[in-house]
Amino acid sequence: MKKLALHWKILLGMLVGIIVGLLMSNLEGGREIIQDWVKPFGKIFINSLKLIAIPLILAALIKGVSDLKDISKLSKMGGRTIGIYITTTIIAVSIGLVLVNIVKPGNSITEVTRAEMVENYSGDTQKYKDSAKEQKESGPLKALEDIVPENIFSAATSNRNMLQIIFFAVFFGIGLILIPEEKSKTVKSFFDGFNEVILKMVDLIMLAAPYGVFALLAALVVESPSVDLFKALGWYALTVILGLICLVAVYIFIVLVFTKKKPLFFLNGISPAQLLAFSTSSSAATLPVTMERVTEHLGVEEEVASFVLPIGATINMDGTSLYQAVAAVFIAQAFGMDLSFSTQLGIIATATLASIGSAAVPGAGMVMLVGVLGYAGIPEAGLALIFAVDRPLDMCRTVVNVTGDATVSMVVGKSIGKLGEPHVKNWDDNYPKN
User: Fold this and answer.
1) Coil, strand or helix: which one is 377?
2) Does residue 425 form part of some domain?
3) Domain annotation covers residue 313
4) Which of 96, 30, 92 minimizes the C-alpha distance to 250?
5) How does DSSP classify residue 36?
6) DSSP-assigned states of every residue in 274-318
7) Residue 12 has pLDDT above 80, yes or no
8) For residue 432, what pLDDT band results from cuts at 50, 70 and 90?
9) Taken in order 290, 214, 364, 173, is the CA torsion positive or negative?
10) Are 295 and 302 contacting, i.e. CB atoms less than 8 angstroms apart?
11) By percentage, how much of the chain surpasses pLDDT 70?
12) What integer pLDDT is reported at residue 257 of this predicted model?
């Protein structure tokens, strides 16, 4: 009997998790059982991925940069990477604005529903407003200042400091390029071996992926708000999801045109990372799997993937940018506001910049959305209107974020002649058959 591929195992785990969550929601004490005895295993799975995220970035980036052996190659790759990321983000925000102005989901929100949501979620809204206020008061160049860590060991203690880790890794890699090869050989050999160990740890962790996503989805279902709130926000959620689907179609088109790879090849290659992104809502937690799929299954050479993907997981938040555009106009519509064309153009710029500073962790898009709302003069209390469905939409937009990272890595790889054939045909080929 043929062994079931990993992405099917993950999908099965997700479906079983949803079914078990629905069943336990209707049983007395079922919610508590899931929260106490199932949810912790989902957290353990996410923590195990986060555990190796920073070591992976350090090892992969240092190895990738030092392997270039030429500063000009690094400059060329970096310029193309950031340029393509910014372009796809602008496309994402534009798609969101077009759809939200066509569908007009905010017109379906009644005054009664609005008051109910504001009352239920005002506490959560204040938390995001406080975080955004803190960022706003920090100064216009604070984001640039924060890129350079004052202590690499302190920066490495939090997955929220990804840009600082990337800066150190690139800086360290440049240093290795500039010293004589006989002196850098030992250090490079160490990081080559270190990188292999981390990748093997990814393989081992992914053996537990179906069980981890089962626990995550079961917990999400039993903790979901009332169905009535989801119905009231159905048009808004549909608009976001439709926009995300359109954006994935744009990615497939880009892959087809610039790399000549078929859509099915691309989707099959990245699907396990997409499913994991859906379960964790974290580009950072999914990064180890994304790197494995892109290098082993999409044919991008490691020196490109190890440079492009960690940067993408930090600054390329296309799904989040699209969601921010839709959410901002939706909230304005719900409050009866009519945003001018110039204001919506400003939203494109604000959402693009906000996505660059958005952390690759669950819920970060909510914090950045406050800045977008503030620019457009939209009441920040409107965050309460969308908080009820933010978690499932966060899962969907993280899938798009990861897909965008993979797309850009393929395009950059193709542009510099570093895109070849996949190394393995199936994830499970990495493991011996029974």
Assistant:
1) coil
2) yes
3) yes
4) 92
5) I
6) HHHHHHH--HHHHHHHHHHHHHHTS-B-HHHHHHHHHHHHHH--H
7) yes
8) very low
9) negative
10) yes
11) 75
12) 94
Residues 367-412 have pLDDT tens digits of: 567 667 766 777 666 666 676 567 778 888 889 999 999 999 999 9
Domain of 38 in residue numbering reads as 6-429
- The pLDDT confidence band at residue 428, using thresholds 50, 70 and 90, is very low
Give the pTM.
0.68
Q: Residue 110 gets which letter from DSSP?
A: -
| AA letter at 185 | K
Q: 145-149, 251-255, 297-301, 395-399 — which is least confidently predicted?
A: 145-149
| Continuous segment of H or E residues that includes residue 243 | helix 234-259
Cβ atoms of 270 and 410 within 8 Å: the answer is no
Domain count of the fold of the chain = 1
The first and second tokens of residue 133, run together, are: 């206020």
Pick 226 or 93 by higher pLDDT.
Answer: 93
166: phi then psi, degrees, rounded to nearest 5: -60, -45
Gap between the Cα atoms of 413 and 420, Å rounded: 9
Residue type, 63: K
8 A C-beta contact, residue 217 and residue 18: yes
From CA 194, how far away is CA 187, in angstroms rounded? 10
Which domain CATH number covers 238? 1.10.3860.10
Q: Which residues of 271-288 are buried (b: 16+ CB within 10 A; e: fewer)?
A: bbbbbbbbbbbbbbbbbb
CA distances to 195, 284, 325 from 239, in Å: 41, 26, 11
Using alpha carbons, select from 360, 365, 361, 247 the residue that is nearest to residue 313. 360
What's the rounded Cα separation, in Å, for the pair 325 and 90?
A: 11
What is the rounded CA–CA span in Å between residue 146 and residue 148?
5
Q: Does residue 72 lie in a domain region?
A: yes
C-alpha angle with apex 424: 421 to 429, nearest 5 degrees? 175
| Mean pLDDT on 211-237 | 73
The pLDDT tens digits of the residues spanning 292-318 come to 899 999 999 988 888 888 888 767 788
pLDDT at 429: 45
Dihedral-angle region of residue 260 (phi above 0 means left; psi in -120 to 50 means alpha; beta otherwise): left
Residue 1 maps to a domain:
no
